[in-house]
Every structure is written in C-alpha cells, then in structure tokens.
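Running co-folding for flavin-adenine dinucleotide.
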Amino acid sequence: MLFFELFQGKHRIDRNTVHSGIRAVVEGDIVTYRAQLLSAGAGESQRKKQQQHGLAALFAKCHGCFVSIPQCKVGCGLPNLYAHLFFSKIQDEATRPAIFGSYSFILPWPPAANNRILIRPNVSLQPYNTFGINATAELFTEINDEQALEELSRHAATKHILGGGSNILLTGNVGGLVVLNRLKGIEIVRETEEHVWLQVASGEVWHQLVLFAIGKGWGGIENLALIPGTAGASPMQNIGAYGAEARDVIESVSFWHWTDHVFATLANADCNFGYRDSIFKHQLKDKVFITSVTYRLAKNPVFNTSYGAIEQELAAMKVTERSVQAITQAVINIRTSKLPDPAVIGNAGSFFKNPTIPAAQFAALQQQFPAIPSYPAGEGLVKVPAGWLIEQCGWKGARKGDAGVHARQALVLVNYGKATGQEIWQLSGQVVASVQDKFGIGLEREVQVW
Ligand SMILES: Cc1cc2nc3c(=O)[nH]c(=O)nc-3n(C[C@H](O)[C@H](O)[C@H](O)COP(=O)(O)OP(=O)(O)OC[C@H]3O[C@@H](n4cnc5c(N)ncnc54)[C@H](O)[C@@H]3O)c2cc1C
C-alpha cells in the first residue's frame, strides 16, 4: 500500500544552533519525523544552510523519500534562515526500521540540485481561484523552473495543476499535490517579414502577453484581451472570444509528461482543438504539465472586428484608424461592461458551453420558441447561446444563499461571498435540469470541476 506521511517542522536556526538529529515518532501507522536543531555554539551562516540542506539530502538518500526545502543562498539574511522540512515517504515495511533513531550528519555543500522545491501541507486555495472558494490543498507547491517538474514526478501524490484558477470550481478540499505554475519568460524563437513566433512560458499571465504583443504591434490575440489566467491554460480549452480562438495562433504546445518522464511538443494539428476543447481535456488530461506555448503572431495583422459589439465600440471610441491597440481597448471596454470582475464578485467566466444541436432539433425548437438565437456550427449543426436558454428558464439574477446566476450575464455563475463549491455545483445542476426540461438540451459545464 502506498502511504504518504508528511510532517512540517519549522525550526528557527539562530546564531547559536547546530543540527543534531532527526527523531521519528511512531503512533500506530503514523510516523512523524522531527528535525531537532539544538544549541551548540558556532553560528556561521554557511554552516546553518549546510545544516538545512544536509538534513534534507541525507534523509532523502537514506530513505528514498521526497524531501524539499526552500532554496537558501549563501549569505542570505537571518530572517530567511528557517528550516522548513517536509518529508514524505512511501511506507514500506522493509525499509521502515531504518528510519528510526537519530542521525549524525556529514553536511554536503553545495546542496543537491533537487533541494529546491518547497511543499507545504494544508494550504488554503481561496486566493488561488477566481470563484474565491475556500478549500484546502492537502499539499501545495509553486514551481518556477522546468527541472522541478522532473523532481515532482517522483512524488507519488496525485497532481493538480493550477494556473490563474479562473476556470476551476473547487467542490471540496483537494487531495494530493496542487502545483502552482510560476514558469515565466517570453522568447522570440523565429521571425520572418510577416510573422513572429513567441515561445511563452506557461505561467505567464495571458493578458500580459496580449499587452506585450500589442506593444510591439503584433496581431492575432487582440480579440482575446482580458481573458484571465495563464498562457499555459490557453490550449487547454482553446480559449476564445469575439470570433478568435487560441488555436488560430498556437504553433505548438510543449509539456512535461508526468508518467512517461519526458518533455515533448505537440504541433497545433495534433492538439485536437475544438470549441473550448483540446487533447489536454481528453487523452492527455491530468497526464501532462504544459510548460510553454509557441504562438505565431502577425506583423501586419488583419483585424477581425465583425463579432460582438467591437465595431460599435470602435465607433463609440471614435477610432478612425484600426490598430491592435484600438481593438484591444475596445475588447477591454466591452468585457468590463459585461462581465463581473472576479476581484469584486467571485466567478469563473462562462460556466457552461454553448450547446451545439442538430439543425432538425433546432428547427423544431424554433417552432415553439421563435426568438431562439443561433449560430451556424458546421454542416447540419447549430449552436445556441447557453445564456439565452438559461435566461428563458428564469435563472438570470437568481440567488441561492451566496451562490447565484449573474444578473447581467446568465452564463456566469457567481459567488457573492461565502458560497461553497458544492453550493455552486448544486446550483449549476438545477440550471442544467431546467434547460433540459424546457428545451431538451443538455448543457455541458465549461469549468473544470475539482
Ligand atoms: C471573468 C472571466 C472571464 C473569462 N472569459 C473567458 C473567455 O472569454 N474565453 C475563454 O475561453 N475563457 C474565459 N474564461 C475562463 C478562463 O479565464 C480561461 O479558461 C483560462 O484559460 C484559464 O486559465 P487559468 O490559468 O486560470 O487556468 P486554471 O483555472 O488554473 O486551470 C484550468 C484547467 O487547466 C489546467 N491547467 C492550467 N494550467 C495548466 C498547465 N500549465 N498544464 C496543464 N494543465 C493546466 C488546470 O489543471 C485546470 O484543469 C474567463 C474566466 C473569468 C473568470
């Protein structure tokens, strides 16, 4: 049986302490490792760091367990000199006796390369999801370099990747390890007269990337301005807005495969992009960590202003000359007037996908509901705005406790303050049921449910 044991030891190392050993306390099935830092005189800062790293490295070596401690550079100030030691271990009867007792240490310096991940237990995810749901991660870590992924792969806990948390609903505490993506960097990897290829680390904030691109006058993602979240999540559901989709500009997607232990790259054609859909929601779901996305942007962009209210907004802005900057601003204006700001009311944008139904079914519905709106969706298919269907069922502005359907945009479910993920989930179930009853259409949730 795989059994994870975790203990957090926080021991300040001050001027007069040196390490003396690890104590293992056994209570039933639970083994707790306690790092003991005892006073013994000399206080050179290098030695203190050696103690931290040595403790972790030796423990890892002896027991094959996963040990992580914060990066601690030589010469860092005393306030940084806290030993945060997290030990997890596969419980194995054969090796178990070896962990008891205390140890003396030969302290390696510099610390082993794998000592750069800090894993924290019981971390609140409330600041990390735009619904503002109060749930806890059993284990939590942030990564800011790709190599850390190789190390994390050895950690047997189930992994959940978190970007900006703007497309998830937490229906309870999250077991396993939540990995917060902080990979950063934008690099031009190719350039021609017409195009530029940007390799963007997956933890970059999407809207910052849009601003970066329009700052250079490059086009292709201006219609996708102000979509919250990270670049790494853009291929996940093939983000889209105002007639543009990420797949229009994605050249390739690179990722780390958790179980194959390889970095790999998929070309656009192999990502199976669809409407709010991709291979990353199916065959590769929970199997990969997207590390970077390469986008191909246009140096002489062709503008797409036919969708939504972009033309009207450009007119209201008195724009005479089209530019990526003007279109971005128009999109920002429209979005801020229509969509609730997660910083004010918790939400994850559109909660449901717009359903696609057979044209024959649509024709029958049109008899009954002549005002039903639609968009073409390929041969013999019609797309119906989910917001309209939900509104017709009387849900717009409805509220159950702190969970609600937004008053201006029925497609958006909101958390007015203290709603739980379960309450929002239940409300979404009631919305689905009434749309099914009235129109015979099954709504699919766009938001990822954890
Ligand atoms: C106000 C608002 C407006 C929105 N408008 C739009 C819109 O117009 N169009 C649109 O398409 N979406 C929209 N969204 C939804 C959301 O912003 C996007 O889906 C966004 O891409 C999510 O990014 P994220 O980093 O927050 O992902 P998260 O919510 O953190 O994660 C979403 C899913 O992707 C997975 N994931 C995230 N990063 C990685 C990675 N690096 N590797 C592998 N898996 C990963 C997660 O595990 C999770 O399953 C909106 C959301 C809000 C709150």
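Result summary
The chain has four domains: 7-99, 120-181, 186-255+288-338, 346-449.
The longest helix spans residues 45-63.
Job closed.
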